[in-house]
């Protein structure tokens, strides 16, 4: 069951093309309970998110189904993802199964990106940056890369940046200058003004990563300090001698902590304006459009819809690897339902969406035939080939031909 919200009409579906294999792996991660939530869960809180592993006999046994809803509720929302990690599986489990294999790909010459996406308070920052008790995926990756490149005569460099209201700022520079996203004559993306710092130990990395918690100085000060929501990212560059001399672009591993999705119709908890919330959501829609286009093997990928996807274009396209971590709230949260809905739709390949839409088309056609008394053989443009290129994400829009309006007239006859 898909969740329908007014914002869903703004999520655009690119034209579906032939599908060979999906480029973006989409997995879920259920956040653990906070101390306050644990106290409540011990008494009254019932499980809201459940994970169902598919059997080998299913059509796609590698995927899992996540369900949202109380045990006693008759209504449940269900979505499919490539995998989902539950509350008892910490960041170390996610790293060993999802991130560590990508490090080998980066060392062999490809790029990789790990993007944390979810509603506000779903555990994105804890997953990427970590906490005192739970090391984040970024720090684990740095430790593994330093270990594997120790004897390979390669340098490990890092860059920290922030994307606020579609502007990119360098966080390593104390002045936080704006980074220009440019394209050279060969179509390669260049980040002018983004500084790099060499890392030789995990403790050195922790010292540098403290800038992620610092606010961006470019934001004007207000009488009441308001928490600014933004995307924050880390680039890990693995450079050889040729890379340092500038003859070759170094391989990169990206970690992105996206701003949390929040329904713009509701007032924000920390004073975020409606305009700012709408900009954040627009940026998130742009990222999900790129994910969907990559998974459906589109000829045109809308990188320009978001400044973040534009600057990561070199790492997202081609034969590079992308992991989308969909972080889920363990307690009732409508924004998490919407996030899971978009992630599940982007998890499908073009063939799956075409099959689903063909079934919907036949269902609507049968209903229309019964209403107007027209045999199914008279209906046209309902073949699977004619469905390609239509917007199938709009649940409220049918994909059949327009119905002819029927007018009724009431005639009054005097007695």
Could you explain how this protein is built, in words?
The protein folds into two domains: 21-348, Kinesin motor domain (Kinesin, 3-Layer(aba) Sandwich); 350-399, no CATH class. The strands form two sheets. Strands 1, 5, 6, 7, 8, 9, 10, 11, 12, 13 and 14 form an eleven-stranded mixed beta sheet that branches. The protein has a three-stranded antiparallel beta sheet with strand order 2-3-4, covered by helices on one side. The protein has helices at residues 35-41, 91-107, 124-128, 137-148, 202-208, 241-244, 274-295, 307-311, 313-316, 334-346, 350-372, 384-387; strands spanning 24-30, 49-53, 64-68, 77-81, 83-85, 112-118, 155-164, 167-170, 178-183, 189-192, 197-198, 231-239, 251-257, 321-328. Mean pLDDT is 77; it is low at 1-20, 217-226, 353-365 and 367-404. α7 runs parallel beside α10. With 415 residues, the chain is α/β, with parallel strands linked by helices. The longest helix is centred in the C-terminal third of the chain and has 23 residues, at 350-372.
For the biggest sheet, the summary is: 11 strands, mixed
Run of helices and strands: EHEEEEHEHHEEEEEHEHEHHHEHHH
Distance separating the two termini: 55 Å
Q: Identify low-pLDDT runs.
A: 1-20, 217-226, 353-365, 367-404
Task: Please tell me what the overall shape is.
Answer: globular
- According to CATH, the homologous superfamily of the largest domain is Kinesin motor domain
Q: Determine and state the CATH class of the largest domain.
A: Alpha Beta
The number of helices is 12
Helical content stands at 25-40%
Number of strands: 14
Radius of gyration over C-alpha positions, nearest whole angstrom:
24 Å
Q: Structural class, from helix and strand content?
A: alpha/beta
Pfam families: Kinesin (PF00225)
Family: Belongs to the TRAFAC class myosin-kinesin ATPase superfamily. Kinesin family.
Binding site for ATP: 118-125
GO molecular function: ATP binding; ATP hydrolysis activity; microtubule binding; microtubule motor activity
